[in-house]
């Protein structure tokens, strides 16, 4: 088990589909950050699932389809504040909490996100 990636330990693609569905149900209706997600919602969810697959140690799914993630550059056209990052993390925390895995795995999974969320911040206001 210790040689398995976090992607595998949380349940692989099935878990990530559940996570992204739960997460974006929250995000798309969030009063602060829903403005950041106005394009094709199914495409947004699919890109996130592919990215998370790779981010959590699974197959290089995002890179195979879209090239190197370059997440900060891809998010630069959007105004993202610290408040946005906190709201994003709150939605992710709630979505992670709904996964049918142990509290330890939920904590390990969630702890992968704060650094990346705050790295996307590009505006003070």
TrEMBL record:
<dbReference type="InterPro" id="IPR012292">
    <property type="entry name" value="Globin/Proto"/>
</dbReference>
<keyword id="KW-0349">Heme</keyword>
<protein>
    <submittedName>
        <fullName>Group 2 truncated hemoglobin YjbI</fullName>
    </submittedName>
</protein>
<keyword id="KW-0408">Iron</keyword>
<keyword id="KW-0813">Transport</keyword>
<dbReference type="InterPro" id="IPR009050">
    <property type="entry name" value="Globin-like_sf"/>
</dbReference>
<dbReference type="InterPro" id="IPR044203">
    <property type="entry name" value="GlbO/GLB3-like"/>
</dbReference>
<dbReference type="InterPro" id="IPR001486">
    <property type="entry name" value="Hemoglobin_trunc"/>
</dbReference>
<comment type="similarity">
    <text>Belongs to the truncated hemoglobin family. Group II subfamily.</text>
</comment>
<keyword id="KW-0479">Metal-binding</keyword>
<dbReference type="Pfam" id="PF01152">
    <property type="entry name" value="Bac_globin"/>
</dbReference>
